[in-house]
Amino acid sequence: MDRIVVLTGAGLSAESGLGTFRDAGGLWAQHRIEDVATPEGFARNPALVHEFYNARRAQAAAAQPNAAHRALARLAGRAPVTLITQNVDGLHEKAGAEAIHMHGALSRALCAACGHGWEAPATMAPEDPCPACAACATRPDVVWFGEMPYHMDLIADRLAECTVFAAVGTSGQVYPAAGFVQEAAARGAHTVELNLESTDVSGAFDAHHTGPASRIVPEWVDRLLAG
Ligand code: APR
């Protein structure tokens, strides 16, 4: 039985109505990364950062998983599958699957002073005190540029033992996630890229399925489960 690792990116949730980062009109065309996705930006203007994530948290709360999320949940129920997501929208869980959240989650809050984590309220503000240490250092529990992604040891273990590695809806521009395909390929895994278009790392994959995730992911899962 194949041991499957699937890395997901913003393109998986595009058809659920959530914006991607680098497509035309994407989040990084509307906001400066250095203002809303770095520790320095948070230190400079925490209110702006909370405003950015409060809006994304509300959109994610209202969003529903699409056929691609549901297909991956179906796969995870039938085969040894590890879902690793760069997304923070929680749609894998809404579809009934568990995912390794390497970039954190909009549904979680974190205290920048003591490291305490808790379930985030719908909206957060800089003056919200940490429930553990009372410091006013509440931040979204998402990983910013310049910070170490979560669960990297577990991810390395799963990449080392997988026989199939797939990347769905990610542009392959942000490391370490963009390098996972090389790690899996080096161990002999068959690698597949599922995306609307080719990416910077398409050349690293053995196979490619091109089209909207809501169509190509269920088709890919059906073929995998048909054996
Ligand atoms: N179906 C399949 N793929 C799609 C779809 C779709 N409907 N719509 C867009 N895509 C693809 C795009 O072609 C692109 O390759 O999804 C990818 C989105 O790329 P990005 O916007 O760069 O998102 P992602 O790769 O997840 O970004 C990685 O960068 O800014 C950080 O932390 C942020 O987790 C994010 C990381």
User: What is the H-and-E element order?
Assistant: EHHHHHEHEEEEHEHEEH
Structural class: alpha/beta
- The rough form would be described as globular
Portion in helices: 25-40%
Radius of gyration: 18 Å
DSSP strand count: 9
Written overview of the protein:
- It is found in: Cytoplasm.
- The active site is at 103 (proton acceptor).
- Residues 1-227 form the Deacetylase sirtuin-type domain.
- Keywords: Cytoplasm, Metal-binding, NAD, Transferase, Zinc.
- It comes from Ponticoccus alexandrii.
- With 227 residues, this protein is α/β, with parallel strands linked by helices.
- Helix content is 34%, strand content 19%.
- The chain has helices at 27-30, 33-36, 39-44, 46-62, 67-78, 91-94, 152-161, 180-186, 213-226; strands at 4-8, 81-85, 100-101, 104-111, 117-119, 138-142, 164-168, 190-195, 207-210.
- The strands form two sheets. It has a six-stranded parallel sheet with strand order 3-2-1-7-8-9, with helices on both faces. A three-stranded antiparallel sheet has the order 5-4-6, with helices on one face.
- Helix 5 (67-78) runs parallel beside helix 9 (213-226).
- The longest helix is centred in the N-terminal third of the chain and has 17 residues, at 46-62.
- It is globular, with a radius of gyration of 18 Å.
- Adenosine-5-diphosphoribose binds at residues 9-11, 14-15, 20-23, 26, 86, 103, 169-171, 173-174, 195-197, 199, 212-213.
Helix and strand topology:
Layout: E1 4-8, H1 27-30, H2 33-36, H3 39-44, H4 46-62, H5 67-78, E2 81-85, H6 91-94, E3 100-101, E4 104-111, E5 117-119, E6 138-142, H7 152-161, E7 164-168, H8 180-186, E8 190-195, E9 207-210, H9 213-226
Parallel strand pairs: 1-2, 1-7, 2-3, 7-8, 8-9
Antiparallel strand pairs: 4-5, 4-6
Helix pairs in contact: 5-9
